[in-house]
Design brief:
- The protein is mainly β.
- Helices cover 9% and strands 49% of the residues.
- Strands 1, 2, 3, 4, 5, 6, 7, 8, 9, 10, 13, 14, 15 and 16 form a 14-stranded mixed beta sheet that branches.
- It is globular, with a radius of gyration of 16 Å.
């Protein structure tokens, strides 16, 4: 199959039910034995062949019964309803992993997810401030997630910590923060005071662009 030309640049959000500092980033098992969470992205600039993807947002809600590398995961894509039919198909093709090199994020995702729920096309509110460690992802009736800085338990002042991953397949550097999630779609769950990563990313068929 010929290589498809695509590129996604923008704001990246990963919220899950684990303790601060996602164990997956350290090749460690989930804090509570299972992974429930989401990935979300607002594309500031992107394309799939000739189809522009600028200013669109998408999310994927996931559940894994154990460490991600053991697979058996579920996922449900959620795509901005403003996307045209061509843009929807383009984003789903990218997320399928069919057009990504081995070992890259979407390729790995295609190997560890065994149940792919039908995609949802809905209005998306995506607010993001990486430096302030604040974000909001709102998809009415389906998903609500808020992010704020981790707080010092003594002074209540914001606590800042970064994770740097020179060979990361999701991002190279992320700000760690605190998330709440209320998921009401095919994968329903609630978390409070759990992990969040905010990052600026560039994803390509060959992986994360430095």
């Amino acid at each position: 199959m010929a290589q498809i030309d695509w590129r996604l640049e923008g704001e990246w959000l990963k919220n899950c039910n684990c303790a601060f500092g996602c164990p997956c980033d350290f090749n460690a098992p989930p804090t509570n034995g299972e992974c429930k969470g989401l990935l979300g992205m607002h594309i500031t600039k992107g394309h799939y062949e000739r189809t522009r993807l600028d200013d669109l947002s998408f999310s994927v809600v996931v559940h894994f019964p154990g460490p991600l590398h053991e697979g058996n995961g579920q996922a449900q894509p959620i795509i901005d309803e403003r996307a045209s039919p061509e843009q929807r198909e383009a984003l789903l093709e990218i997320m399928s992993g069919k057009h990504s090199a081995e070992g890259t994020l979407f390729h790995i995702f295609s190997l560890i997810v065994t149940t792919m729920h039908d995609p949802v096309f809905a209005p998306v509110i995506f607010e993001f401030d990486e430096d302030a460690r604040t974000a909001r992802l709102s998809i009415p009736g389906i998903l609500e997630s808020d992010v704020e800085p981790i707080r010092n338990p003594v002074t209540d002042k914001p606590h800042r910590i970064q994770v740097v991953m020179p060979e990361g397949f999701e991002h190279n550097k992320g700000e760690v923060a605190c998330a709440t999630i209320q998921s009401s779609g095919a994968i329903a769950f609630t978390t409070q005071g759990a992990h969040s990563t905010l990052a600026h990313v560039v994803q390509t068929p060959e992986g994360v662009e430095a």
